[in-house]
Design goal:
Elements lengths: L1 H5 L11 E2 L33 E6 L18 H9 L1 E7 L4 H10 L32 H6 L4 E7 L25 E5 L12 E2 L2 E2 L2 H4 L5 H19 L5 E6 L11 H5 L9 H15 L23 H34 L6 E7 L16 H4 L7 H6 L15 H7 L13 H4 E7 L9 E3 L3 E2 L3 H9 L6 E2 L2 E2 L9 H5 L8 E6 L2 E6 L2 E6 L18 E6 L15 H17 L10 H6 L9 E4 L5 E3 L11 E9 L6 E8 L2 E8 L2 E7 L7 E5 L7 E11 L6 E7 L2 E8 L12 E4 L19 E10 L1
Parallel strand pairs: 1-13, 2-8, 2-9, 3-11, 3-12, 4-5, 4-8
Antiparallel strand pairs: 3-10, 5-6, 6-7, 9-10, 13-14, 15-16, 16-17, 17-18, 19-30, 20-29, 21-26, 21-30, 22-23, 22-29, 23-24, 24-25, 26-27, 27-28
Length: 764
């Protein structure tokens, strides 16, 4: 009887329509003494018999044509090997930018329907743009976990609104609130690969664990392998769903120097020739259909031959670094796949590799950058400074991204780049799907139209599970995607399909082989379209069944079809909460909230406070007063009082051998760094340090005054108060400087030698 009571009971498919299942009535018998009672049969949800593991990886900003698996110039032997075992999809589509693509992947719904129509960093109060995945669009992790799977996520989670990334929560938009039992990674758009800001669950990983010499991609792979080992040790028969989302090759492009060296001189020929060579290779491999035209270079992207020799040297090196980063990523993914194979788990694991959450990124503009956020929207970095840092590119002193010419080449043969929901260069990415024993033609290329929202239903199909009607009390929206599992047996390229696209006011619509493009004219490296926030849209039409690269505009020849497609686009937009359209990019949207109607007084209690920069005060651009109560161990104490951002952008108020000091940095360029150190020391014990940050005009110059117990100790003028915290994972810290530090400190991480009972920041 005891043995039978401990046996798990598998629920029927019908029961699984409501998750979690209703608690079963007690079917045992009660008695005063346990020896006379009969226990109930245990009702433990198990995954369906034979349900496979699922391992899905989605890389970041990898264009359609970067990896050798899709004819690109960067050798990725592990992706190639998986392609030979599985099937490549050459008409697979993303949404065009980070957060929306991740929402579509996890939910199986269109991104606006899931509530993530734009970057989660800049949520807005409209149904399609809240920046958080909605309860009525439960993630595949939630569904699988409630159906007997172990679930884990590693790497980039870009679906938590910026104001929910601190220890105050709420945490329902974090991975552990979206169905993942375990999370190890970061909750931002990008992260420094050398000194990342990481979380395990919802707890910040302390610097000793977060630091070290291994780049982030290697640490993520280590943790995937460690977790799988422990998951299979704890529940050998239980399938897992593991999702790995490395931050590469999003900026910053960083890679081990020995990997960069491999590509020395490989890109000296320039983007025009690399793009043409890639196109010919794609044709020969069958990645693209015969007759596919190579679309021309946009006029806004300079030809390689128009660059000076110094510009060519800088640009070539940026591509060497990006290539090295993808090779390093491929190697780490290969380690995970090899370990699954060694364990005997690969035989029963569905593997999906999505090479990019959108097209390659052109946000660095035609020149490229060594400081992503510093240059975004302005692109005014000193050319001499760019060229002076060529040998540092890819290392910890740069936060680089390559020029738009390489972006265009990495999207061969397609038009334009990331952010363009109106052109295939923004929304078409390579995808590999593999499941041993289930691929009819290993190594084949499937030209069936597919989308990120197809993957969640594919995984449910593989597990033998229906999509639930109700999850955790929330009635579910229908899944928008369809399973790709049948395509492993027989690829049907001409299946009927309607799929809309929209990112930042740029729109697209696929319908049964035809594609409608509506573009506002804003370039990927600009904040606003030329027509302002109400631009004139340029509408074009393409027959993708005959025009793989979107090369031939048929709008003039097909006016009736154009009008019908526009009407269908509007219908789909209304159905999915796409309206209202907002044509501004992130920097312009974010600027609208600066200095707004939020709190003006902030208190921080203790020296171990650390909050993500978007979650608290923004102590730049406008006037404020910072007051810190200090209790120092000695009169020569060193360490951080308050630090904001990093050496790539930010400021720090700190003590240098007892002397109050301030540094403000727009970048690592010495001309953009301002520092002052007082000539007097603070006493041992208690004192009150005040920093006045005075700005006459928002974003104008600032005067910083340091005072101790109302006596001025030092003063310095900053040429600008625009000390934007860079990169995206940086924090406002009290008593230390976590992530990438603003400057070098005497103590590790700038840990204060003493205590900071209280800090206040008060805005004028």
């Amino acid at each position: 009887m005891v043995a039978s009571a401990l046996c798990a009971i598998q629920a029927s498919a019908q029961d699984r329509r409501v998750l979690p299942m209703p608690t079963a009535a007690f079917d045992g018998t009660m008695a005063e003494n346990v020896l006379d009672a009969r226990p109930a049969k245990a009702r433990v949800v198990q995954a369906p018999q034979g349900a496979p593991n699922v391992f899905v990886m989605m890389s970041d900003d990898v264009g359609f044509a970067m990896s050798s698996a899709f004819g690109g110039p960067v050798p990725t032997p592990n992706f190639d090997r998986l392609s030979a075992q599985g099937q490549r999809y050459n008409r697979f589509h993303t949404t065009g930018i980070c957060s929306p693509s991740r929402a579509a992947l996890l939910t199986g719904r269109n991104h606006h329907a899931a509530g993530v129509g734009w970057l989660s960093d800049v949520p807005s109060p409209y149904p399609g743009y809240g920046g958080r995945i909605l309860p009525e669009t439960a993630t595949i992790a939630q569904t699988l976990r409630l159906n007997g799977y172990s679930t884990a996520m590693f790497g980039k989670h870009h679906n938590t609104p910026s104001n929910e990334r601190s220890e105050a929560g709420p945490f329902d938009a974090w991975p552990t609130g979206l169905g993942f039992d375990y999370f190890y990674g970061f909750v931002a758009g990008d992260i420094d690969q050398y000194t990342p800001t990481l979380f395990r669950g919802v707890q910040r990983v302390d610097p000793p664990e977060a630091g070290g010499t291994r780049l982030l991609d290697a640490r993520l792979a280590d943790d995937v392998i460690r977790w799988v080992h422990n998951q299979k040790a704890g529940a050998p028969g239980k399938p897992f769903f593991a999702y790995l989302a490395p931050g590469s090759t999003h900026a910053p492009h960083q890679a081990p120097p020995e990997y960069i060296t491999r590509f020395k001189g490989k890109f000296d020929k320039g983007w025009d020739i690399v793009r043409e060579e890639t196109w010919r290779r794609q044709l020969a491999m069958g990645i693209i259909p015969k007759g596919t035209r190579l679309t021309p270079r946009p006029a806004e992207i300079p030809s390689w031959n128009s660059l000076s020799s110094a510009q060519k040297a800088f640009a070539a090196r940026t591509m060497e670094v990006a290539a090295a980063q993808l090779v390093f990523q491929d190697e780490q993914i290969g380690r995970v796949i090899a370990e699954l194979d060694r364990m005997g788990e690969l035989e029963n694991t569905v593997v999906a590799m999505i090479l990019g959450d959108n097209g390659a990124s052109a946000e660095a503009g035609p020149k490229g950058t060594i400081n992503e956020l510093r240059g975004m929207g302005r692109h005014d970095e000193d050319p001499a400074w760019l060229e002076a840092n060529i040998e540092k590119l890819g290392g910890p002193d740069t936060y680089e991204s390559y020029p738009a010419g390489w972006t265009w080449a990495m999207n061969t043969p397609l038009r334009w780049t990331k952010q363009y929901a109106s052109f295939l260069g923004g929304i078409r990415n390579g995808m590999i799907l593999s499941w041993k024993g289930h691929v009819a033609h290993p190594g084949a290329i499937c030209d069936q139209f597919s989308h990120l929202n197809d993957l969640a239903p594919t995984f449910l199909d593989a597990a033998g599970l229906p999509a639930p009607d109700m999850v955790l009390g929330a009635k579910q929206k229908p899944i928008d995607g369809t399973s790709l599992l049948p395509s492993l047996a027989s690829c049907e390229g001409a299946k009927p399909r309607t799929q809309y696209f929209e990112i930042g006011g740029k729109v697209g619509l696929y319908h049964d082989g035809w594609f409608l493009s509506g573009d506002d004219g804003r370039l990927a490296w600009e904040n606003l379209p030329p027509g302002g926030t109400r631009p004139e849209m340029q509408w074009t039409l393409y027959d993708l069944s005959r025009d793989f690269s979107q090369a031939n505009d048929l709008s003039a020849k097909e006016p009736a079809r154009l009008a019908a497609m526009q009407a269908l686009w509007k219908q789909e937009a209304q159905r999915n909460n796409v309206f209202p359209l907002d044509h501004r990019f992130a920097m312009a949207r974010g600027a609208a909230t600066l200095g707004s109607n939020g709190p003006k007084h902030f208190d921080f209690w203790g020296k171990d406070v650390s909050i993500p920069t978007p979650s608290g005060p923004m102590p730049i651009l406008r006037s404020f007063t910072l007051t810190a109560d200090l209790k120092l161990d000695t009169a020569a104490a060193s360490g951080v009082v308050t630090a904001y951002g990093s050496k790539f952008g930010g400021w720090s108020l700190y003590l240098d051998q007892g002397r109050p000091a301030f540094i403000g940095a727009r970048s690592t360029d010495p001309k953009e760094i301002t520092r002052v150190v007082a000539d007097r020391k603070l006493p041992k014990g208690a004192s009150k340090l005040t920093m006045r940050f005075a700005v006459e005009k928002i974003a104008g110059p600032a005067i910083v005054t340091l005072s101790v117990d109302r006596k001025e100790f030092a003063r310095v003028q900053l040429p600008t108060s625009m000390l934007l915290a860079a990169g995206n994972g940086e924090t406002l810290d009290i008593g230390r400087d976590l992530g990438v530090p603003v400057t070098d400190y005497v103590t590790p991480h700038g840990a204060i030698e003493g205590n900071i009972p209280h800090v206040s920041i008060v805005f004028d």
